[in-house]
Amino acid sequence: MLLGRRAMVGHMGLGAVSLMLGARSASAQASRLPVRLSRSGPGTAGTLRDGVNAKYPEVLDGLDVTWVDGDPGQLQFFILSGALSCGPFGALGVAEAAQKGADLVLFGPSLNNHGSWVVRADSPYHEPRDLRGKRIATQLPTSDTYRHARMAAALHKLDLRKDFEFVFGPPIANIALFRRGDVDAIISIEPTTTRLIAEGHREIATVAGMWRSATGDAAPLSLVSSASSRKWFEGNRETARRVAELARRGNRIFLDNPEIVRDPVVYELMGFRATDTEALRLLPSRLPRIYPTEWNKSVFEGLERQIDVALDLGIIEKRPSRAFYEQFES
Q1: What gap in Å lies between CA 42 and CA 270, rounded to an integer?
Q2: Same structural domain, 272 and 186
């Protein structure tokens, strides 16, 4: 006689059911691939994806993640040292690392450039060249934010190393210097820039805008992609594919519904509170440009264009000797 599902459960008893469910759980656990990824630092754009991951934990299916903390600039060192399996790296950072013998590969979308030149509300400065000789706070010089800012400024005949006095630090430290008046301006990143604008300060230029006006290239300026050493990538292709899909899915969830940034689960992980009403009002309209989902020929051409321009400007010495981006087969 055939037993129905309920009857079978009754005959099996609770102990047998527990064993069956435990086996399923163990099977699901075994299908998850281990990986060490970076948790986004306070005041950085990646915190939005941290919020999306918290609200929709199913996006992490297939990965057993060990999270590693770090700020932009530090994370690149972690990838090079192996402390991270993979993480954010840009085309210029890959080229710079190649000059020191590292062999890195980009394999999925992460963030477009979102650097902004910001001055206080009562500042007399209206464009970056007005700030020559002044003190400016920004990310570490090993960050792709700084590399891009340097390249975009050079396209406008400005040398960040000679024309300005820079103070380097993580976003939260930089914003403290700016608010105290210890620096005249800040090259900030999102969502820090939106926080400052909500406080009444002025965005006088964006790095992407400076790039676009000088080159005529209207395509999004890719800042960082999912990246790893080539050795890790070649030995962990399926894990890399899942990591790339994790970032892509997180970005897509936000692009499909930018208002999600007003959900406490999301904005609290971004460092905001319910009382930050003006910032929360601005975020849905200011952030979507940052989060790409495409990883295709057009993106690769943009990465190559960055290398070409940086070579012409002397920002990097030579291009990587091997193709530095990979695309998974459909």
Answers
A1: 7
A2: no
